[in-house]
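Teaching note: in complex prediction, the entire set of molecules is handled at once rather than each chain in isolation. The prompt given to students was simply: 'Predict the structure of this complex.' The entities are:
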Amino acid sequence: MIPAYALPLVAAWPILVGGVLIGLNRFRRVSQAVLVAALLVNLAVGVLLIATLHDGTVLAHQVGGWERPLAIVFAADLFGALMVTATGALTLISAWFAIVSGQADRAYFPAMVAILTGGVNGALLTGDLFNLFVFIEVMLLPSYALLVMAHRGRGQLMQVTSSRIYVTVNLLASTLLLAGIGLVYGVVGSVNLGDLAGAASASSEAAIAFTVVLLALAIKAAAFPVHGWLPRTYPFMSPAVSALFSGLHTKVAIFALFRLYAVVFDGDERFLWVGLVVFSLTMVFGVLGAIGENDARAILSFHMVSQIGYILAGLALFTPLGLAAGLFYLLHHMFVKASLFLSAGAVELAHGRHSLGEVSGLARREPLVAITFFIAALSLAGIPPFSGFVAKLGLIVAALDAGQVVLAIVAVVVSIFTILSMLKIWGAMFLGEPREAEPDAGQVPKRLILPALALAGVTVALGLGAEPLLALCRVAAAGLSDPTGYVEAVMGS
Amino acid sequence: MIALALGIGLLIGGGVFMILRRGLLRVIVGFVLLSHGVNLLIVSAGGTDRRDAALGEDLDPALVADPLPQAFVLTAIVIAFAITVFLLVLAITGEGDDDTRIELEGRELETPHLIDAEEVVVPPRRHRDPGGPAPTHPHPYLDWADDVDEIDDLDEASDARDAEGEAR
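The expected output is the structure of the full assembly:
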């Protein structure tokens, strides 16, 4: 069980480990071993947090023993605990892939991943708006370094260009976030989430200030129409880094959107239609972009935009059913998308090719890779018995339950298009005859595909045994639709 | 108050203008302006009429300046400084120029990020004489990256391109 005073440590200790790893940089194997050990402990902390909070209790700690309103608050509820666990698991598996693919041999890679973990944990556990900004920056700075380390052998130009796009877009969004927080402070006079509870639904000035914050988070979450940066950057990172980022960065922004809308707007029904429109369009434009692409990881990146629309549609419904479906979708998506990025990346690393049509007939040559990709692709499209089916079904049922028939229709149609674009990858890369023109057609080594297979295993497990996680998601969603417990804990009463 | 609002507007307007330029160096200047504008915004969010220092005991809340926005700005400045330094490093890696322009030769309608680097004609760099003594090390500020071999290769490649450009 995790005591409340340990919450700041959950964010702080990975950063300390990162500091030690910088010192250990010369000893590659040692620093990788330390990183894996630290990530295992981090995962265990997440599981312990879930065990502590599974009944819907909220932990909060005023840092440094200061009284409110001087103290900075750390607070954890089940939603935060689930996210800490899921991001921890994903970081561990991405680090595993990075180690077996040799990416982690690059200087300071383990240290950057450790600091990134600390930033993510902090952003998930903070109860303070300005601290959220600080932790998002703590998360982004090592990411920028990881991005520059990421090579894809596709030429220097696109790599540098894409990291420039990534850094400038994120910097712009961060500046906007900071401006929004400044406006919020000017209007409400506090940045403590407890003080801000219900502020935006009570006053329209505060609602405008918070809209700036939400817009900045929407850019970071890559929602339509501010999604354009994501498909232009993710395909050009190294496979390990794109899997890591796909599971962490946009998802932390989505987490913050859920949290802020629930607490600060108090789930205000007046603005929900904006979300319904924007996130339906996100689904549609993401999948249309995916169909138009010609490169495995570019298709996957556009899918991400589409799936982010699904997740946030759960928020836009803001019914207990819709929120629970959105949370389940969020967790499912993190594992499946990372699995797809890793298996596509493993093919890329082994065959040195990326565009569809340059590698073919993999299903016959490399059944393990094919099975891994097949499971994750079907899960993404929402075919039973995988977790994607549970997630999509939950969302469609929630939409119908809330009377949003259009949203349900869009969700069904978009998932048909998702299958279509997945078939594009499947048909070009896995079916067909192996090219005779590839004399040195190598095999994807088993060690490269195992991380993706592990994640595919997670989606099978979540699909067949969805009930425990669904139950947790329902408790977490109840905490969002009625945030009094969270607010009281943050206020220290 | 008016002066402050105008100042914020000018800084943010100038920042947006610079961010929309092509060269990364101009974009960086844009971000510096933008973050100054936002910092002023935060300071003004704490109120501008109270100016007394928040030090000592028996403070009058009606006179003392709000210390919280000042702490915010201090944090924001440190973060902006770190990222500016990083962006400056990014501006000099890769191609020897900070310009992001590429010549597509009639392929402008294709999605630019799908065009392979080898197909792209990089415009020859303008010859620039930085003046001063010759550098003793190709990239002293990139030593930390442990990638010096690669960077040397890149330098040689771009030097070769330069020589080609001059020959023409």
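Point out the following to students. Chain A touches chain B at residues 106-108, 130, 134, 137, 141, 144-145, 148, 154-164, 167-168, 171-172, 174-175, 178-179, 181-183, 185-186, 232, 235-236, 293-295, 298 (CB under 8 Å). The radius of gyration of chain A is 21 Å.
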